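The authors assume throughout that readers already know how a fold can be written as discrete tokens. In essence, backbone conformation is discretised, so a fold becomes a row of integers matching the chain in length. A single example would do more here than another paragraph of explanation. For illustration, here is how one protein appears when written out as sequence plus structure tokens:

…
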Amino acid sequence: MRLTHLSLTNFRNYVRLDLDLSNDITLLQADNAQGKTNLLEAIYYLATANSPRARADRELINWLANEEQMPFARLEAQIEGSDVLREVNIVLLKTPDRLQKEIRINGVKRRARDLIGQLKTVLFMPEDIYLIAGSP
């Protein structure tokens, strides 16, 4: 299983990103505050519908999008499995009352728990080092 394409619209600092990923290892290198962690967060969010960094999903919508009449963020991924190609889409739509989250797998509306296993991820954050280096 591997991620072949990632598309982000109004997610964190990304107004628009379309990224094709190769079969080889992908290395992210850039200056600070350029979106490396946000890109990894987007992949994790597509796998779990939860952010490891944000307390609320509304924090994931790009600040510039909040100026629009209907602020939204869209995350899309194409995942290649051993025998199938899957498409996972998550749309966050901010309405005056609340935030709506819509999840689709291969175009069919699903629940967040249906994402589990569609894209397998392992997340290691810098603060996780305290498990080893911290006090007993």
Summary: The CA atoms of residues 28 and 37 lie 9 Å apart. The first strand starts at residue 2 and ends at 11. The domain at 2-133 is CATH 3.40.50.300 (Rossmann fold).
